Amino acid sequence: MKNNNSITLLQIEDIHKEFDDLEILKGVSLSLHKGEVLVVLGPSGCGKSTLLRCINGLEKIQSGDIKFKDKSLTHKNTDWQEVREKIGMVFQNYDLFPHMTVIENILLGPLKVQKRDKTEAMTQAEELLNRVGLLDRKDSYPRQLSGGQKQRIAIVRALCMNPEIILFDEVTASLDPEVVREVLDVILGLAKQGMTMVIVTHEMGFAHSVADRIVFMDEGKICETADPDTFFTSPTTERAQHFLNIFQY
Amino acid sequence: MNVDWNFIINSLPLYKEAIWITLQLAFWGILLSIAIGLVCSVILYFKVKGLESIVRVYIEVSRNTPLLIQIFFLYFGFPKLGLTMSASTCAIIGLSFLGGSYMSEAFRSGIESVSKSQIESGLSIGLSNVQLARYVVIPQAFSVSVPSLGANCIFLLKETSILGAISILDVMNVTKDLIGMYYKTFESLVMLVVVYIILLLPLSILLTWLEKRVRYAEFGN
Amino acid sequence: MQNLGINAIFEGRNFQRLFEGLVITIEIAFISIIIASLLGIAIGLSRTTKSKPLLIINRVYLEFFRIIPTLVWLFIFYFGVTTALNVDLSGEVVAIIVFSLWGAAEMGDIVRGALQSLPKHQLESGKALGLSHFQLYRYVLIPQAIRRTLPGTINLATRMIKTTSLVVLIGVIDVVKIGQQIIETSRFEFPSASFWVYGFIFILYFIICYPLSQISKKLELKWNS
Questions:
Q1: Looking at the predicted complex, does its ipTM rise above 0.90?
Q2: Scanning every residue of chain B, which has its alpha carbon at the shortest distance from the alpha carbon of C163?
Q3: 20 to 30 A Cα–Cα from C215, which one of A188, A200, B110, C89?
Q4: CATH tag for C7-224 (out of 1.10.3720.10, 3.40.50.920, 2.40.100.10, 3.20.20.70)
C-alpha cells in the first residue's frame, strides 16, 4: 500500500540476543518504513516476541544495532523513556493498571510523562475512546471490563502517547474468540490511517488483510519475507510451507 | 471469691501511667520499624551493591534472636563499651531493630506482588523508574502489605511486655510489684489481662476492618 | 589480655554451665512443641466440625493466646494459678504448660489452614479412581497436609525457642539466668563480662534458630512449586 514512502523509521541490523546461554535471536535484520505494517509470523519459540521486546528496550541485545530514525538505540546512554514515547507497545495481557480507572490509565502517560495540557489530552483520549466505542466506560475500573474491552483500552492507552510506531505482541491470544474480531478491527482501522506497526500474531486471516509485508521467522532468524499474497499462496521456503500447513485442516 | 474492688480502683492511676509509657515506647518503636523496613525493602528491591548483603544479614540476625537478649545486650552489654543508654532508648532501639526486619518483609512481599508485566506496561508508556514506583508499584504493593504491616504493629505492641526486664515501669512491672507488695494476685492479674485486651483488641479489629477496606478498593468485592 | 571479658565465658565451669542452661531451654521448647503438635492436630481436625459451640470455644481460645502476650500468660500461671490452686509449680513446668497451650492454639490454626487449602478436586479424582476413604486419607490428603503444615510448624518452633528466653523472668535457671550469674560473679575479674556473655548467648540463639528458619524456607520453596 505505501511502499513509496521511503522514510525508514526503524533499522534493525544483525541483532543477537541470548538468555542464559541460549541464543534466541541469531542475527536478525530488517527495516521498517513510515506507514508500513509489518506482520511477524512463526512457530512458538522462534523469537518473534523477543524481537519486539528488543525494539522498545524491554530486552537488551548482545550485538548488532537498532536504529530509530537513524539514531542508534544501542548506546549506553539511550534514553529509553524517550524512545518508548515514540515506540508504543500493546501486550498480550493488556496489563491495564487495576487501581486506576480507564481514563486514568489512558491519561497517565500523556500527563505525567509528556506533561501535556490536561484539557488537550482529555479531548484526545475521549475522541480515541469514542472511536473504539468505549467512551461510556471511561470511569470504569479494568476489573469491570471484558477481555476485549480491556485490550481495546490498552490500544487507546498506547495511541494517546502519539507514538510513531506501535508494536503489538499477540494481542488477541488471550481473548475469547468472539471478541477477537472487535480488537482486530481497531488495528485494521489504524492501518488504514497510516500508522506504522509491527504486529506479532497467530491470526492468519487478519495477517493477510492488514500486512504490507510478512516476515516469517524460525529458530531466531528471518526465514522469508514477502508480500501477503505471495506468502500465503506460494511461500518459497519449505519451513514457511510447513508452518502454513499447520493452519490447514 | 472476694474481689477487692477498692484495690483495683486505687491501682488504676499506676496502670494508667504504665500504659502511657508502654504506648509511647511502642509508638516510637513502630514508627522507626516502618522507616527501617521501607529503606531495607527499597535496598533489596534495587539490589544496591554492598548495602544489599548488609540488609540481608541484618534481617537474618534480628529474626533469629530473641528480643529479650537483644535488649539485655543493649542495656547491660553496651555500657561496657562505653555506650550507656537509658532504658527507654534501649527499648526503642530494640523494638526498631526487631521490627524493622519484620516491616521490611511486609513491604517486600507487597512490592513483589506487583507483576513484572505491570512494570513493563508502565515502562512502555514511557514512565521513569520513579514514576513507576509512584503510580504503578506502590499503590498496588500497599494493599498487599497492609495486613502484614498491621500484624507487625500488633506483634510489636505485644513485645513491649518484656521491657519490664530492663526496669521500665510498664504494666508488667506494676503487676509484679503489686503482687509482691500486697499479695493481691488475682486482682492484679485480672487488671493486667484487661489492660492488654483493651490495648490490643481494638487494634486487632481495626486491622481486620482495614484489610477488608483495602481489599474492596483493589478487587471491588 | 587477662581481663578481657570474653574469658569470663571460658573461666572454670562457666562454659559447661552455659550449655547446661541451653539444654534446659531446648528441653522446654522441645517438650512443648511435641505436646503442642499433638494437641494442635486434634484441635485442627476438630475445627472442621459443624458444631457451633465447639467452633466458638476454639476461636476464643485462639484469640486469647494471640492477643495476650506470652509473658503475661507465664505470669498468670506462675503467680496466679499457683496461688489459686495452692500448688507449687516450678518455672519449668509453668513454661511447658503455657508454651504447650500457646503452641497448640497456633498449631490448630496451621493444621486447619492446611486442611482447608487442600484442593477439593483431588478428593473427587481420588474417589473417581475408586480409592476408599482410608486410602484417600493415607495417600492423598495426609502427605499433602503434612507438606502444608511443615513450614508453619518449623516457624512456630523457631518462635517458641526464641520465647523461651522469657522463662528467666519467672525464675527458671536457663541459659540467660546462668549468663547473668556468670556476669555477677565475674564482676571484679572481668568487668566487661556482660557484653561478652550476652553477646555469646545472642550467638547461641542465632545458631539454633537460623538453621531452622533456613530449613523452613527451603521446604516452602521446594513444595510450593
A1: no
A2: B66
A3: B110
A4: 1.10.3720.10
